[in-house]
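Late entry, evening session. Most of the bench is empty. Finally got around to the prediction I had been postponing all week. Sequence below, unchanged from the version circulated by S.P.
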Amino acid sequence: MITIKSEKQIDGIRKSCHELAKLLDILESGFIKEGMSTKDVDDFCYDHIIGLGGKPAFLGYGGFPASACISVNDVIIHGIPKKNQILKNGDLVSVDLGIDLDGYISDSARTIIVGGKSSEENERLCQVTRECLALGIKAAGKKNARVSDIGRAVYNHATKNGFGVVKDYCGHGVGLELHEAPEIPNYVSHLSPNPRLRAGMVIAIEPMINLGTGKINDNDEDGWTVRTADGKSSAHFEHTIAITKDGIEILTKV
């Protein structure tokens, strides 16, 4: 069932989202460097969130063993941070994070290029995935928009640029729980529920776009890591947004 949030609830979610945006800004503005381990990044996120008086929303969720999903290069999502996974310049590092602040939950992701430069195709992949997110949000703000309008905008832009769209994972409602109804696919399926977007809904839109095929490999021994089926790079950008009577508010943005 889709939960319509009250003004008070959206205000609480907004505060959580703003703190998450600030944390991701820190990570993106130079904290993540060559020579760090993905565990170093996760430790920083944990300490930062605890310092806010919050809780890492992902830690322990379904048994996940870390505060952040940190997915490098061909890992699409759910990468487990490791002490022996050392970052190098040019790596694509997708950091997916959530904060539980006084019971209000935020969710956002960014793909960060270590050192700021990578191959031309990797940089283009990141740029197009950012554009997919922006177009998905724009579609959500149209009058009488439905969930399918988001997926159509994301899918059309990614495929037009020659990239693969991950169909096995999708966006979702968020705010009072980490994963709520409705699901927000990055493509259009006539078999999927297609509710109209209404004021009071809070959703996470999260394109996961691959350099090659959109197909996945989820056979890693850890039971979490999801990779591209062809070993090529993946990018992941996500915002939590609120549908209001006045339009769209991007909550994970300050």
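Two things to note before I forget:
The radius of gyration is 17 Å.
The chain has one domain: 7-250.
Will write this up properly tomorrow.
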